[in-house]
Amino acid sequence: MYVEADLVFYGQPLANQNELFDFMADELEKKKYVTKDFREAIKLREKEFPTGLSLGDFNVAIAHTDTTYSRAQKLVVVKPEQSIEFKNIQDLQPLDVDIVFGLILNDSDKHLEVLQKLSNILQDRNIIKKIKNVKSQDELISLMQNHFNE
């Protein structure tokens, strides 16, 4: 799975999870990467199984849903203009998330492989620092492609 430039979004003015998931669904539906039921499925999945992760001074979410709502293998990266509240996967407490990774997987066998790759990237403090300090769309695209498309 590769990070594609047209699925990386920087500085999006999204106020909450609903706006974020609607934005993601709109972008993915336009490209026919997901079914029409994806929008509600990802919202429901997040309510039932929160995906927020605290990485110390930087928080991420790895949002995803069942493979039946996906028509492709894609990674969506959204660094919103301001943090969006998610629930922490560990203690279910509110967590202000700085970047969201949306896993669009139509092959359940790939799920663990993609999570492992993303986990390796997120454990690297240097990469996290770079992601945190990104100042533009092009910089975010380049950074994600350099570390994910190896």
TrEMBL record:
Name this polypeptide is given: PTS sugar transporter subunit IIA
Keyword entries, A-Z: Sugar transport, Transport
Pfam families (alphabetical): PTS_EIIA_2
InterPro entries noted in UniProt: PTrfase/Anion_transptr, PTS_EIIA_type-2_dom, PTS_SugarTrans_NitroReg
Transport found in the keyword field: yes
Residue stretches in coiled coil: none
Protein's UniProt keywords contain Lipid biosynthesis: no
PTS EIIA type-2 domain boundaries: 1-147
Range of residues in the leader sequence: none
Highest rank taxon of the organism: Bacteria
Organism: Oceanobacillus luteolus
